[in-house]
Amino acid sequence: NFIPKLKDHILYWLWKLGVSYCDHVFMDEEHNSVIIPNYTICSVQTMQVHYTTYDLRCKYDTINPRTHTDVMVLSGETAPSHLYWYAHVLGIYHMETWINNEDQPLKHHLEVLWVRWMAPLQSHKSGMKHACLPKVAFIDESDPDSFGFLDPSQVIQGAHLIPAFAAGHGTSLLRYGTSLAHPGGELDDWESHYIGM
To answer: Dihedral (C-alpha) 117, 123, 124, 128: value to the nearest 10 degrees?
Structure first.
């Protein structure tokens, strides 16, 4: 579902729809209005995310789908249980797109991240009171939102995720085998990760 999800992302971006519209389903006519000339999508190896530290210094993280893959974004939920969402970056792309509306086609340059989403484990207690780091896990591949696209401008900074070694490897969230979604060419995933603070 790479191209349909990409077209959904392009339409969300062009119409400036917020997270409250994340379940909006675009019609085929709307998908067909998005033109990617010759389906030419350019891949790049790295992206820099600039941010300000707690002591007002300017820093940056270099995101690379092979080596430094995890990012954090603000949660779009109205009453979030956790302030941030986490994603594993699978690809960094840019492309020219045309939107064919009734008047005249409009050209846009678009940059996107293809990501595999992670979610906080609700059963895990964390924080100062419990003396434990927050824990996240990949979203099950059967969920239609487990993979998606992200606007690079939404990334706050890179995230340091530590595999929860005690939980071990598993295939409960993504089937066993070679996949771009398995970090580092592995055949399975760590079941969960701690969020380094």
So the answer is: 120
Structure-token pair, residue 187: 């055949």
Long-range contacts: 34-38, Cβ < 8 Å, 24+? 34/7, 34/10, 34/97, 34/98, 34/99, 34/100, 35/97, 35/98, 35/99, 35/100, 35/105, 36/6, 36/95, 36/96, 36/97, 36/98, 37/96, 37/98
CA neighbor of 70 nearest in space, from 183, 189, 197: 183
Residues of the chain short of pLDDT 50, as ranges, are none
Per-residue tokens: 16: 């400036």
Q: Record the pTM.
A: 0.82
Length of the chain: 197
Q: How many angstroms separate the CA atoms of 11 and 188, rounded?
A: 33
**How far is it, in rounded angstroms, from Cα 98 to Cα 15?**
14
Rounded CA separation 173/190 (Å): 10
d(CA 184, CA 194): 18
According to DSSP H, which parts of the chain are helical?
Answer: 2-15, 28-32
